[in-house]
Write a structure and sequence with these properties.
This protein is an alpha+beta fold. Helices cover 31% and strands 20% of the residues. It has helices at residues 2-27, 52-63, 158-164, 193-220; strands at residues 32-37, 40-46, 72-76, 80-83, 119-122, 134-137, 150-156, 169-170, 175-176, 182-188.
Amino acid sequence: MRKFFVCFLLFFANYSLYALDQEEKAKQSDDIVIIETNLGEIQLGLFRDEAPVNVENIVKLVEKGFYDGTTFHRVIPGFVIQGGDPNSKDNNPSNDGYGGPGYYVKDEISKDLKHSEGTVALAKAADDQNGSQFYICLGRLNALDGKYTIVGQVIKGMDVAQKIAKVKTDKRNDRPIENVTMKKVYMKVVETTETADTLEAADTTAAVDTTKAEEREMTKNPSGGGGCGCGRSKPKAEK
């Protein structure tokens, strides 16, 4: 019994460490997806290094507005919430789960990523048939490891995902009785050091240009055309 307890503690500690590492990794991602639902907001950090082709596809679909108006059409408490099917936009629930962008993307399965709470992976009907549908894990799902392409991790709004997991569903197909809609899905602008330096350089250039323009105006008309121009405050460059 004691040996079992020690093994359990070691397993739990190991799981906790990689789950935290995975979440921290997602927080550092340059690809952040924001999902605004009628139950709250969820933010996902994508793993471009581990799944470059699939992440690029997700980003492309997000930027096209593909996910706007889709629903979480499959909700199983303690397991996953699944969405991203364009068929879920219509009034026919029987076709939910069968739609996609019209093409497939091959699997990109990483041995370093695991299905923990908040993990985002791609749903598929068969190997190498990834499209637009994805699921968010509601807990540790080790049985799925190595079988599905993990593309990201929830970095904010896991409480919203768990709230979605509690909605009433049709037990025949796990579809929510009332739609949980992704009202708007878009990429968050992540300001990098390079971006900040570029903005700062642009502000400096604008300020210098403004000063030179004022000096030229003062040279043309020192009196300012009826008043001293030297007392005017210099306009700030808009950021």
